[in-house]
Amino acid sequence: MSSVTLNNIVKRFGNFTAVHRSSLDIAEGAFVTLLGPSGCGKTTNLRMIAGLLDPTEGEILIGGKRVNDVPIHKRNLGLVFQNYALFPHKTVAENVAFGLKYRDVAKSDIPAKVEAALDLVQLPDVGHRYPKELSGGQQQRIALARAIVIEPDVLLLDEPLSALDANLREDMRVELKRIQARIGVTTVFVTHDQSEALAMSDQIVVMSAGRVEQVGAPEDVYNTPASEFVANFLGASNILEAKCTGTRADGDVTLEAPIFGQMTVPAAKAPRVEGAGPAKLVVRAEKLLLSKEKAAEGVVSVPATVETVDYQGQAVRYFVRAGETQLQAINMIDGHPFAEGSQINLHLRPQDCAALPGE
Amino acid sequence: MGWNAIRIWTVLVYGFMFLPVAVVVLLSFNANQFGSFPMSGVSLRWFEELWHNDAVMRAFRTSIVLGLMTAVISTTLGILASLALVRYNVPGRNTITTLLIAPILVPEVVLAVALLLFLNWLGIGKSFALLLAGHVIFTLPFVILVVQARLVSIKRDVEEAALSLGANPVQTFFSVTLPLMLPAVAAGALFAFTISFDDITGTLFWKPGGVETVPTQIFSMLRNSISPEINALGTVMIIMTVGLPLLGAAVARKLAMKSGT
User: Fold this and answer.
1) Homologous superfamily of the B44-259 domain (CATH)
2) Whether pTM exceeds 0.95
3) Which residues span the membrane (chain B) (predicted)?
4) ipTM score of complex
């Protein structure tokens, strides 16, 4: 178990910069997710930590020690790939035992360790089988067992759930988190799936186009996005060009926004807005409620028309029009959704909004 | 009507190709001194005579030693070249691949003469080493083609997994990459052996005086007389050059089934 530090890391491939100068501190034992769309540099970062790529500039520290010049096989890392990468010519037990052969482990201790690892991933009876005889989910568990049996300093997971079916993916998510919590290994998890990131991480590092957009706990990143990109990448948001009219004594920010008019956003949700000037109001699609009723005290209410209804079972995604502006709303429902063309009221609590500085 | 014509035509073509071979095999078991039908009896007499023919046995030993050495050297070089070309970003990789494959495309006579002239120019005479070098040059493309195709299909992340688990690059090669390549390596080695064992054109140019391989031995025996021994020798050649690859393919299939790749 060790901390991981990236210090002013830059990675260029020829003329293309995959990772712009960025720094990152990953605490010992933390579960940190690198989240972003494909091509954002998250896998490049992971591969640099692993030692599969050399950073062009900057240094990488594992457990406080610079590892730039340490080759991958001496870094003591557990690596899990999207496509499992099990050795097809070895049995499951041989796969799991592979890393132990290169460590100071007495030959007689290996079977017990392999068995313990297979127990941990809840596949105790498959040691004699070959990988191809197992399902995708089982193979990924074996890959995980193989990576953790060597007691790595850092566990690196490169989209490990992406190749699995939707249902299995959610089970594995819980399972992976359980195992990680149990052994407490520092974990770096790469994914493009925001729900995986939100569900599993202690910290999320949102990346875009080779840059770190935001680092924070899942709730922070979700509730207080640091940029328009983060607001849109994690869930759906409406971003309205607004004007900040001032900061109150308690730090809360007052905005003059289109459609909703005067809004007061709590200081905690507008940390980057500095005084009067252009600003952006971030309205999460889930916070915008459609209703036929009148709004309660302290809730802003504006009339709107339902344009498109995207029924998803327990939730509905509406596209509504208020004046000239189209907004997106995701509401939980029981019963029937509003029909297209209905006249409704949009309810929004100002404290549910976040604010970003304008351009 | 149309289909029947095609069927008959196909049978005729195959007959034209394989009947002579069948006749050779059949006559090699003929008891009679003169190779003609009807056969007067079945016997292994010509095989026995082959066994006692020193020149033939020497040629056999030469061919087998040459074939084995060619196979070992070609396979080793082929694996190394394939690894470099597939796994590393070698500058001019396409050009190098083309050059390595070129000996297949160049007529063998041209290749044979060119190598001979080149070595003459360097002042190096004919030798067994030259013969071996020649055989390596024109078996190498086959090994590279087979091994490279296999290597491309072995995912890099399996090797990366081995590295991450603590195996150094050499250990990774021997414990993961090579076992996964094995069917192709075996096929490449068999190709190299049989092609070398079979070859006559290049061998005629390169062999030093007094050294004969089985094909050149047959060739020189034919110049004197058509002895029934030649039929027996032909049969042995056929068994080796057809049987070995078939056996190899069966073994490779079995290996592949076990590892599921």
Assistant:
1) MetI-like (1.10.3720.10)
2) no
3) 12-31, 64-86, 98-122, 128-152, 173-197, 230-252
4) 0.83
